[in-house]
Amino acid sequence: MIIDIHGHYTTEPPELRLFREKQLAGLADPARAPTTTDLGISDEQLVQSVQPQLRLQKDRGSDLTVFSPRASGMAHHVGTEAIGRQWASVCNDLIHRICTLLPDNFAAVGQLPQFPGAPIEGCIPELERIVRELGFVGVNLSPDPSGGHWNSPPLTDRYWYPIYEKMCELDVPAMIHVSSSCNPAFHFTGAHYINADTTAFMQLLQGDLFRDFPTLRFVIPHGGGAVPFHWGRYRGLAQELKKPLLGEHLMKNVFFDTCVYHLPGIELMAKVIPVDNILFASELLGAVKGIDPETGHHFDDTRRYVDQVKALSDSDRYKIFEGNARRVYPRLDALLTRRGKPGKGNAPR
Amino acid sequence: MIIDIHGHYTTEPPELRLFREKQLAGLADPARAPTTTDLGISDEQLVQSVQPQLRLQKDRGSDLTVFSPRASGMAHHVGTEAIGRQWASVCNDLIHRICTLLPDNFAAVGQLPQFPGAPIEGCIPELERIVRELGFVGVNLSPDPSGGHWNSPPLTDRYWYPIYEKMCELDVPAMIHVSSSCNPAFHFTGAHYINADTTAFMQLLQGDLFRDFPTLRFVIPHGGGAVPFHWGRYRGLAQELKKPLLGEHLMKNVFFDTCVYHLPGIELMAKVIPVDNILFASELLGAVKGIDPETGHHFDDTRRYVDQVKALSDSDRYKIFEGNARRVYPRLDALLTRRGKPGKGNAPR
């Protein structure tokens, strides 16, 4: 099967936006705050809303999308911590309902109620709820809940340890994913996302986080930002900083997705990044929806690129499309196995 | 000849550091401020200090390095605007002396006295001085003089127009180069530099700056940050933002250097970026000084990578090693021509 580990719910019914507007209007006028978290969205509406995703799965031949709330919608920096908590829970509930209604097509990844400057412990109850009660298989974690001001401590700082402890206990990975940018210097999908990927990798390279958390797993999306293109630079920096080789230092715990929207990028990635660290993804419906005039195909039809990389063996392709996802998201593997869809067994690394 | 367009003076005599320390100590105790900008560095000391660069030029077969003050040393955010002005002028004077002492090996690019929040007009006198009086061929321009807080307006904002007008009048390009990071989220060479490259490109993509300045030229270093790796993403974003094709929209004015420290990165670049937009550089003595255990050669020996890209024709190689530099830095071309080293004539684009 083909598992796309990076899809966001970007086709939400208008009721969700209305709820968010009420939330924020409530800051100025409490009378406008939502009085209920029941959005009045029917199951039929939810199923209808993801028809574009289902059509793309069918057209492109992927089977299951690891599905999380709209990344730019998380906007941890907007409102208050309490509003963010309510917002995360409402968004996660919608994802849960979709994954329950269409279990063959979607598996759930959640949003955390991070808030700039607030202790990360505030996110633990929601993480426990979505994993233990709702069966989520992973979570999105923003290294910059300020939305482009980058005033959180690096990911290796003890500030983050409580959430890492909980992730390890629950055996769920985090995708390192920022949200919208309120800094005019950074376009969200064109700069902020990619910078965050690069920054996160370098923060991890500078530290020794996985000595403290040997089972912690991070997925860095968008192909790892600039990292594969500058793989020599990062290998060299690790050497200068007296760190072990990257394979030892980071690559047991850090994984990249394939959200890179042209063949040469995916070819580079397959050349320099160990195949055990590459997970198929297309970020649909995502950052770039158009058709590439050079190929006549959608930019974000990343399966075509992976299919075209000649250097990959069948076993490599199995890892990228399915095996690595089952290994990095063990709760996804368990869920699929329970449903009679076991993996082929992951070859030892 | 082989022109390396990105070298920084990272082997300065200790007198320069001492001067900087006096400058900053003078903030706390005016009695400690330097009383003269004569650093007491002899010509012999200067020539001695760049022996490592000369040796590498010889070993690696490059002829001339476009040389500017240490990038991380600019530190526009440290001190006051007046201190920064003095600092830029002292650093530029050293570069000028080296380029005068060793005119066959170095051509000068300058540092600007940018200061966070200060009008960019404050940089014009130093730009005029270094170009008109000292013969500099280009300048470094930081899109984030705050050192990692990113509170300057995007490069397309009218805030920057006065310096662009002067650059056009003087016919000098700017390398978009940030300095050190005072934000613990961003390692300077591993995150801040690369993020700045990516960010600058996206800012330019979002705007229409070159409609107002058709002759303005920017070099984005470190291979353009994440841009070539995500070339499909940027082509797609331009399309979504209803901009012209990148070739038309940006690539008459924006150039990337080859400071990418492994062969697959340079191969990708040569595949997706038009050859007219690639300028040879190695950032020596730079970010990554070590030897790559996978090749047995220095990470930053980028000439080896360019030499190994099979797809490049002789004419392509001439452009990357020399022709494009002469076109993007016309004052360098004029200077070399005056010294009896004319180019082969640049084929029309």
Shape of chain A: globular
Number of strands of chain A: 8
Largest two-chain interface: A-B, 59 and 59 residues
Which stretches of chain A are low in confidence, meaning pLDDT under 50 for 5 or more residues running? none
- Report the span from N to C terminus of chain A: 20 Å
Q: Calculate Rg of chain A over CA atoms.
A: 19 Å
- Quote the beta fraction of chain A: 5-15%
Mean pLDDT of chain A: 97
Describe what this molecule looks like in 3D.
Two copies of one chain form a homodimer. The first copy, chain A, has 349 residues and is α/β, with parallel strands linked by helices. Chain A has 15 helices and eight strands. Chain A has helices spanning 14-28, 43-49, 51-60, 71-74, 81-101, 124-133, 161-170, 188-206, 209-212, 231-240, 246-249, 263-272, 302-308, 314-328, 330-338; strands spanning 3-9, 64-69, 106-110, 138-141, 174-176, 218-220, 254-257, 278-279. In chain A, helix 6 links the parallel strand 3 and strand 4 (138-141). In chain A, helix 6 runs parallel beside helix 7 (161-170), helix 12 packs across helix 13 and helix 14 (314-328) packs across helix 15. The longest helix of chain A is centred in the N-terminal third of the chain and has 21 residues, at 81-101. The first copy, chain A, is globular. At the A-B interface, helix 8, helix 10 and helix 12 of A face helix 8, helix 10 and helix 12 of B.
